[in-house]
């Protein structure tokens, strides 16, 4: 699922998207 998540991160290339992704990465 990391590959899919990475694609979403590239799509949401903004502060909000980066913050949500950072939270999920920290959660793991």
From TrEMBL:
Protein name per Swiss-Prot or TrEMBL: Uncharacterized protein
Protein species of origin: Nymphaea colorata (pocket water lily)
């Amino acid at each position: 699922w990391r590959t899919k998540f990475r694609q979403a991160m590239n799509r949401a290339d903004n502060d909000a998207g980066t913050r949500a992704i950072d939270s999920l990465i920290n959660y793991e």
